[in-house]
Amino acid sequence: MGVIFMSKKYSYEFKLKIVQEYLNGTLGYTLLSKKYNISSKSQLQKWVNQYKKYGKEGLKTKKVINPELFILICQN
Questions:
Q1: What is the mean pLDDT of the chain?
Q2: pLDDT at 70
């Protein structure tokens, strides 16, 4: 067991820029994904949904910890 960190492939600033460009209506998911070499349009859709639900905070990278390890840490 150990701490698992999600890879930080895209910066917060990059995600925010792309999401704002999408919301301004310039290009759709597919064309924006191609324009900025994003791995898939579903990744961009996820960012847009996170932004709509949580605002800018939803685009920040989060650290993930194994639930079993978390329990062990809290018990000590």
A1: 83
A2: 66
CA distances from 60 to 6, 25, 47, 56, 74 (A): 11, 23, 10, 7, 25
Cα(62)–Cα(59) distance, integer angstroms: 9
3 has which bridge partners? Answer: 65
> Cβ neighbours of residue 48 under 8 Å, at least 6 residues apart?
19, 22, 23, 29
- pTM (2 d.p.): 0.69
Q: From start to end of the chain, where are the E strands? A: 3-5, 63-65
54 CB-contact burial (10 Å; exposed 0-12 / middle 13-18 / buried 19+): exposed
